[in-house]
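Reopening this one. Same input as before:
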Amino acid sequence: MPNVRRLTSLGAAAALAGSLLAAPAAAQSAPPRTPAPHETATPAKTPLAIGHGGAVASVDADASAAGIAVLKRGGNAVDAAVATAAALGVTEPYSSGIGGGGYFVYYNARTHTIRTLDGRETAPRSADQNLFLDHGKPIPFADAVTSGLSVGTPGTPATWDTALRRWGSRSLGQVLGPARKLARDGFTVDDTFRQQTAANEARFRDFPATARLFLPGGRLPVVGSTLKNPDLARTYGELATKGVGSLYTGDVGRDIVRTVRKPPVRPGSSRDVRPGDLTAADLSGYRALGQAPTHTRYRGLDVYGMAPSSSGGTSVAEALNILEKSDVSRLTEKQYLHRYIEASRIAFADRGRWVGDPAYEHVPTRGLTSQRFADSRACLIRDDKALTSPLAPGDPRHPEPCRSADKAAPTTYEGQNTTHLTVADKWGNIVAYTLTIEQTGGSGIVVPGRGFLLNNELTDFSFAPADPAVHDPNLPGPGKRPRSSISPTIVLRHGKPVVALGSPGGATIITTVLQTLVNFLDRGMPLVDAIAAPRASQRNATATELEPALWNSPLRRQLEALGHTFKQNPEIGAATGIQPLPGGRWLAAAEKVRRGGGSARVVQP
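Same output, byte for byte:
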C-alpha cells in the first residue's frame, strides 16, 4: 500500500506544517520589503501553504494571488487556473502567454472524472517534412528558434475559452481582470526575470517591439523596479470584450500573421530572421482538442496524464509501470536512483519511436501505458550494470521480453522552459495546467502593439530523423502538433484525489514529474520535500543530467561504478503540486529554491 496513506493523515499534516514553521531562517522566504513609491508591492513567496477554501501553486507570487482572488470571489478551479495563467503571461512572459500553447488536466469532484484539453500549437498548413531543412540539411537550431519559421498557431487563448465554457463558472472577461490590472500597473522585477532578460538581450535588441518592452530605456530591467505592459493590458481587454475570436479571426490575429510573415527586425541588424508561413486560415481553423487522459494503475492508485500529442502521460505511465514490481520504499538511495534512471531511459527510447501527433501517426497509447509492455521492458534492467544509450525501443503492440522493435536512435533536442500551475477549489475540483512558449523568450519576437511574445514551438519537431533507418513520428507536417513532454498529472484513489502536480522543463518535465511522484508516493516524502529533492534526468542520452546536490554526492560515484555516465545541470524543472488533507483542507506546495522559489497559497490559511 502506498505511503501516501500516512501522508494524508491529520497527524502528518500537522507535523508537516510544524516542520516548516520550525525550519531555519535560511529555508524561509525573505520578508517582503516595503516598495518605493514608484514600485508595485509583490506578495511574499512561500513554498508551502495549508488551509481551506481552495489553493493555488505557481512559480510566481502575483500569479498565485490572481488565482486566489478569483477563488475568494466564488470562482471555481477552472476560473482560477485561467486567471493564474493570464497573470503568468504578464510576470512570466518568457515562459508563457497568449502567443503559446499548453495542456490542461481537470478533475471534476462531482463526477470523479478526469478530462483534458490539448492546446498545443499547430504547424501552418503549408508545412512539410522539409520545414527546417536548407538544401537538404537542418538549419542551425538557434536560427530556427529566432524566426517566424518556428511560430506555431497559438493554442492558449482557445484553451482558456474552451475550459471556461465547459467547466468554468465565470466569463473570460471576468477572470482576465487581475492580469489586466497587473499588466497595466506593473510587477516588481526579480533576479530571475533580470537573468532571463540578460540571457536573451542580444536577440531582444534585434526586434524593436521586444526591446521597447523588455529593455526599458535600452537597458536591462533593474531588480526591484516596476515593469509595465500597457499593450498586453489592452490586448487582454480586447479578448475580454470581443472574446478569443479577436485572436483567431480578428485584429490580434492579423497582427500575429503580419509579424510571422515579415518579422519586424531592427534596421541594420545582421541577424538572418527567416519568415514563417502562418496564415489567417491557420488561425481560424485552430481548435483546442478535448480528449481522454492517459491512465495507468500504480500500487492501487489511478494515475492520469496527458495523452498524445504530449508524450508526458505515456512516458510517466510506462516508467511507473516499470517500477511497479520494485519495492521502491525499501530500496537504498543508490538502488532507487539506479532503477529510476533506467526506467526513464527505457520510457524515452519508446516515446521516441512511437509518440507523435495522433492525427498523423498511429500512436499505440494503450500499449505504451500497459503493465504487460512495461514488464517486457523492465527485464532489461540489471542491478549490477547500467544500460547504455541510445537504447533501442520495444514494440508495445507485440510485447516480447527484452526484445527490440527497431534500431536505436538518439533523443532529439527539446528546449527546457515552460511554466506550470496547480489549482483546487472549495468544492474539490482540481486543475493541473502546463503552458509554454517553448524556449526562454520563445521566438524573441513581440507582436508590435500587442505586448506578448510569439512561440517557437515548431522547433519541438525533429528537424530530420535522428537515424534515417528508423521511423520518426515527430517530423513536421501540415497542421501537425509537435510532440511535447508536458506532463500535468492527477492521481486518484477510489475516485478521490491523492495529489496533482506538474513542472516546466522541456523533456526534463517527464523525469521531474516521475521523480516527484515516486518521492511522494513511495519514498514517503512530504509533497514540498518531494518537489525540493535533488533531481536526475535520463532521456535515452549518453549521460544522465544531475543537479549539483547529486553531482557532489557520493551517490554519483556509486552509480558510476555501475556504468552510469553523468553531466551536471544546475537546475531541472520547477514543479508545483496540491494535496487534499482531511477536513476539507488543502496543501499547496511549490519550489523552495528553483527559479527563485515558487508561490503556494490558500484561500483561508
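So the earlier flakiness isn't reproducible anymore. For the record, The CA atoms of residues 271 and 449 lie 22 Å apart.
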